[in-house]
Design brief:
By secondary structure, the protein is mostly beta strands. It contains three helices and 35 strands. It has helices at about 70, 220-225, 420; strands spanning about 50-55, 60, 85, 95, 125-130, 135-140, 145-160, 160-170, 180-195, 200-215, 245-260, 270-290, 300-320, 325-340, 345, 350, 355-370, 375-385, 390-400, 405-415, 425, 435, 440-450, 455-470, 480-505, 505-520, 530-540, 545-555, 565, 570-575, 585-595, 595-605, 615-620, 620, 625-635. It has a 22-stranded antiparallel barrel. Strands 2-1-5 form a three-stranded antiparallel β-sheet, with no helix packed on it. The chain has a two-stranded antiparallel ribbon with strand order 3-4.
Length: about 650
C-alpha cells in the first residue's frame, strides 16, 4: 500500500532492448489520382509508444518478441512460476518451493493464502498509454475439457486519458474425481495525467471469483505409484472428498492520485497525495455430504462455511520534491477492517466470537531518489494506535547501463497476524478457534545483481513468532489442522543464480536455487535445491516470415517435507511424515512468432511414464501427467 510516486521515467530492461518498431511510412498510395487514403499521411506509431505503467509510474513498452522468458510466462498465472509447483489441474493452488517468493504486508490480511495465487492484488494491476487501440488475446488448452482465456483492450480517448478493460477466465475439468476449476478475473483501469503533469490519477476496479472442486487428495497412494494400467485413468483413483468445493470472491475499488500545489514544474515542488482502497472478500467451503476426513461435525449434511471480510484504506500525504536531492514525504493512513461470521459458537474451549473488527492508524515518512543511474527509496511507518505495527524498508539500486543493475534491500517489519489465524468458524468441530497471537517479526536482507554475464539474488531472513498451521491428529486419515505460533527464531538463506549460455543458434538457459534453514524445530521446510534448465534452438524460417524456438526444459527439486493442503481452510499446513521431490520434469516445446502473434505447442512432463509414478505436488496430491497443450498470444494494433 505504498503511495504514488510522482516520478515519470521510462525504465528499460533487457527484454526492452529486443523490441522492434512497427512498420513506418505512409499507408496511402499517392501515385494514383484515384487512390484513396486509408490512413493519415504520417508515420505509424512505433511499438515503444505503447506503454505499460506500474503503480509506481515505472514505464516499459509492449513486447511482442518471442524469447525463452515468454515461454516461462505462458501459463495460467501469466508470470514466471519458477519456485512454484502447480497442482494437477489448471486453476488449482501451488505449493511454494522458493520461500523467498512470499511477500509480506504489515497489515492484517484476510488469509486463505492457498486460494490467492491467481488473485490479482493492487500491485499486479497495470495501466496503459497507447497511440491507437491495443488488444491482446491469450488462449491455452487445459488438462481436460475446457480452456484458459485472457483478453484485454486498451485505448486512449485523449492523449493523456486511458482506459482498459480485461477478463481472464478458466474452466478445466481435470483428470481426477471432483477436480473442476472455474475462475474469472475482471479488471477495469483508468489513468489520467494533465498536460502540465500537475495532476496524476490511477484507478481500477477488479471483480474476481475462484471456484475449485476439492477432492482432498487420493486415499491410496500405493495405487498411484504401482503403475497399474487400471489406474492410468486417474478417475479410478479413490479420493477423500466426492462433492466438496471452495470458493473465493472479491471486489476492489482503488484510486491513487497526486496533485502538485505549485502551478509549474520547478526545481522545488510540493505535492498532495491520496490513496483509497475498498475491498470485500468471501471464502466458502461447501460439502453436501459430510466426510470423516476432518473429524466430527456439528451437522449431519450440508456443510456451508462462509467467512466474510471487508476493508477500507485511506492514505493522505504531502511530498516535497527537490530535483537534485529527491523527494521526502509524510503521510497518515487509516486501515479499517471487518472480518465476520453469522454465529457465535460456545464449545469446550470457550466462546468463539462472530467477528473481529478493528481500526489501525499509521504515521509514515518516505524518501525517494532517482538520478541518472541511481535509484533509492526509504520508508518508515509506525502505528499510532495500540496494535504495535511497524515497518522499515530501505532499497537502493545502481544501473550504469541498460544491461547491468545492482540493488539491495533491507526490511524490518512487525506484522499483525492474518485474521484467520485469530478467528475461524466451521461446521467441523475442530475447526473453530479464537486466538490472540503476537505480531510476527520479519527481517530481510536482499542483494541482487542482474548483469550481462549472469544474474544472482541472495536473501537472508530472520523470522520470530512465525505463524503456521499443523495437524493435531495422530490418525493419518484424519486432519485436525489448527494455527500455531513458533516462539523461537528461524533463519533462512536463499541464493538464486541465472545464466544463459549461447552458441550459434543454440542456447542453454539455467536457473539454480539453493536454500537453507536453521531452526530448532521443522516449521519452515524447503527443498535444498531447485533447478530449471532449458536447451533450445532459435531461427527464422519461410524467408524470415516466422521465428521459431524449440527445445527441452528440465525441472527438478530435491526431496523435502512439503507443506500439505487443507481445503477447509484454503491454507497449507506443515507436515513431517512424507517427503516429496527428487523426480525430473521434462517438457518439449515448439514456439513460433508470426508478426505480432506468438504460437506455443508443448508436451508437458512427457517423461512421466518413464521415470516412475512418484511425482507429487503435495502429499496425497499427484503432480501432472503427460499432456500436449497448445496456445497463442495475439496482439492487435488498430
Amino acid at each position: 500500500m505504498m503511495g504514488i510516486s510522482v516520478f515519470a521515467q521510462k525504465t528499460l530492461n533487457k527484454t526492452d532492448q529486443k523490441l522492434q518498431p512497427l512498420p513506418t511510412g505512409n499507408t496511402a498510395d499517392t501515385s494514383s489520382k484515384n487512390s484513396k487514403s486509408t490512413a493519415d499521411n504520417g508515420p505509424k506509431a512505433t511499438i515503444d509508444m505503447y506503454k505499460v505503467i506500474t503503480l509506481e509510474r515505472d514505464t516499459t513498452a509492449i513486447d511482442t518478441s518471442l524469447t525463452i522468458y515468454k515461454d516461462y510466462i505462458f501459463n495460467y498465472l501469466r508470470k514466471d512460476n519458477f519456485g512454484l509447483l502447480p497442482f494437477a489441474n489448471d486453476g488449482q493452488t501451488y505449493n511454494t518451493l522458493q520461500y523467498s517468493l512470499k511477500a509480506y504486508s504489515p497489515y492484517p490480511e484476510f488469509g486463505f493464502r492457498a486460494k490467492h495465487f491467481n488473485y490479482l492484488e493492487v500491485n499486479d494491476i497495470r495501466y496503459f498509454s497507447v497511440p491507437t487501440p491495443l488488444t491482446e488475446l491469450y488462449f491455452k488448452t487445459v488438462q481436460e475439457q475446457g480452456q484458459s482465456l485472457d483478453a484485454f483492450i486498451t485505448l486512449n480517448t485523449h492523449e493523456r486519458l486511458n482506459f482498459s478493460i480485461a477478463y481472464k477466465g478458466l474452466r478445466s475439468l481435470g483428470k481426477y474425481v471432483n477436480q473442476l476449476a472455474s475462475t474469472g478475473n475482471f479488471r477495469f483501469t483508468a489513468n489520467y495525467v494533465t498536460k502540465s503533469g500537475r495532476y496524476v490519477l490511477n484507478a481500477h476496479f477488479t471483480g474476481q471469483d475462484l471456484l475449485n472442486q476439492e477432492n482432498g487428495g487420493i486415499i491410496n497412494t500405493q495405487d498411484f505409484e504401482s503403475g497399474n494400467d487400471d489406474f492410468k485413468d486417474r478417475a479410478r483413483l479413490e479420493v477423500y472428498l466426492k462433492d466438496a468445493e471452495s470458493f473465493l470472491k472479491g471486489n476492489r475499488y482503488f484510486i491513487d492520485h497526486a496533485f502538485r500545489i505549485n502551478q509549474n514544474d520547478n526545481e522545488n515542488n510540493l505535492y498532495l497525495t491520496h490513496q483509497f482502497n475498498f475491498e470485500n472478500k468471501i471464502f466458502e467451503f461447501r460439502e453436501p455430504t459430510v466426510s470423516d476426513r476432518f473429524g466430527d461435525s456439528y451437522v449431519a449434511t450440508g456443510i456451508n462455511d462462509k467467512t466474510s471480510y471487508s476493508r477500507l484504506y485511506n492514505k493522505v500525504g504531502a511530498i516535497y520534491e527537490n530535483k537534485t536531492l529527491g523527494q521526502i514525504g509524510f503521510y497518515l493512513d487509516d486501515f479499517n477492517y471487518n472480518y465476520h461470521y453469522n454465529t457465535i459458537i460456545v464449545n469446550s474451549a470457550g466462546i468463539v466470537p462472530s467477528q473481529i473488527k478493528d481500526g489501525i492508524n499509521t504515521f509514515g515518512a518516505q524518501y525517494a531518489y532517482r538520478k541518472k543511474s541511481w535509484k533509492g527509496k526509504a520508508l518508515y511507518s509506525n502505528s499510532i494506535t495500540n496494535q504495535g505495527l511497524s515497518n522499515i524498508d530501505i532499497s537502493l539500486s545502481w544501473q550504469p547501463d541498460d544491461y547491468n543493475t545492482v540493488s539491495f534491500r533491507v526490511q524490518k517489519m512487525n506484522k499483525l497476524p492474518d485474521v484467520n489465524y485469530n478467528l475461524y468458524q466451521s461446521s467441523y468441530v475442530a475447526y473453530n478457534w479464537s486466538n490472540d497471537f503476537k505480531n510476527e517479526k520479519i527481517n530481510n536482507l536482499i542483494v541482487k545483481a542482474d548483469t550481462q554475464w549472469a544474474a544472482a539474488e541472495l536473501q537472508l531472513s530472520v523470522f520470530k513468532d512465525q505463524l503456521y498451521y499443523s495437524n493435531d491428529s495422530a490418525d493419518p486419515k484424519v486432519l485436525l489442522v489448527s494455527p500455531k505460533q513458533y516462539g523461537n527464531t528461524i533463519n533462512y538463506l536463499s541464493l538464486k543464480v541465472s545464466k544463459e549460455i549461447q552458441y550459434g543458434r543454440f542456447a542453454l538457459d539455467n536457473t539454480l536455487l539453493y536454500q537453507k534453514t536453521a531452526q530448532d524445530d521443522d516449521v519452515l521446510n524447503v527443498p535444498q535445491l531447485v533447478t530449471r534448465n532449458t536447451l533450445y534452438y532459435s531461427g527464422y524460417f519461410f524467408k524470415k516470415a516466422m521465428f521459431v524456438q524449440t527445445g527441452f526444459t528440465f525441472s527438478y527439486f530435491t526431496k523435502y517435507f512439503a507443506n500439505d493442503y487443507n481445503p477447509v481452510l484454503g491454507e497449507f499446513y506443515v507436515q513431517n511424515q512424507k517427503e516429496i521431490g527428487n523426480f525430473p520434469m521434462v517438457d518439449f516445446f515448439v514456439n513460433a512468432r508470426v508478426r505480432q502473434t506468438r504460437i506455443y505447442l508443448k508436451a508437458e512432463h512427457f517423461n512421466s511414464a518413464m521415470t516412475g509414478n512418484d511425482f507429487y505436488s503435495a502429499p496425497n496430491y499427484p503432480y501432472r501427467d503427460f499432456v500436449i497443450r497448445f496456445g497463442l498470444v495475439w496482439n492487435f494494433f488498430q
